[in-house]
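Following up on my earlier message about succinic acid. Here are the inputs again, as you asked, copied directly from the submission form:
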Amino acid sequence: MAVLRSTIDVVPTGAPLGAEVRGVDLRSIDDAAFATIYQAWLDHAVLLFRGQQLGDADLIAFSRRFGSLDQAPIQENGRRFVDGYPEIYVVSNVVENGVAIGSLGAGEAVWHTDMSYLPDPPKASALYALEVPASGGDTSFCTMYGAFDALPKELSATALKLRVKHDGTYNSGGYVRAGVTPSDDPRTAPGTFHPLVCVHPETGRRHLYLGRRRNAWLEGLPLDQSNALLDRIWEAATTDALTWRHQWRAGDLVLWDNRCVMHRRDAFDPGARRVMHRTQIKG
Ligand code: SIN
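Thanks, got it. Here's what our run produced:
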């Protein structure tokens, strides 16, 4: 059922997270429209805006309404992207003159939280589709509120006492990050500990904070115990019942709450072009 707020329609996806926001051109929103969008984002954790026509400056201006922007991380091959817009990170499989214009290629990107290997990860990510393949490359989102709520009682009681190390070695496409020596020992690999269960600073709701499965480690536990517990938690946290899958069209902007949502991407035909521009917003 659509909820009418000012002239903007917020239409929930029907999944446990996500809503489409209709009736808005993100190049020209006033404060009242922004307040509606911000509240919808807190309520639904992922928002979809279809049919947008955003240049990089528009994407940056809209993103800045939520907070200050991170500089884009360095691409797998050591490049930064998009002259004049250091905030824009390119997610793409396209290779021009022998050089990849973006990150992550055409393979699967596994479930993850953006940049959670840092002490202060972005609160939000905005991903704008410029070119998309006819099929494949869908992005799925998973509610970490729902993941916490769905844990068996004894598991959530254990989770509340633990911190997990978020690995900084590999990105979600399995590529080693620029400047990092590959390691598969999570105890010594670069990364940051975060509580396994966090309280969302704006909604006050508890959520799991998992980051990435690869090279994760529960602080203080022997590796085999840590892996067994993490496997149980990840299995419970990423069931289809907790997710929403988005099939992209060019002109879609998707904005997610990176604190309480994980995402993953399906593989697609490497011969097709997929070009997405992303910003990341700080708390
Ligand atoms: C990402 O993991 O940030 C990119 C997701 C996508 O390419 O759809």
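One observation from looking it over: The chain has a mean pLDDT of 93. Hope that helps, and feel free to reply on this thread.
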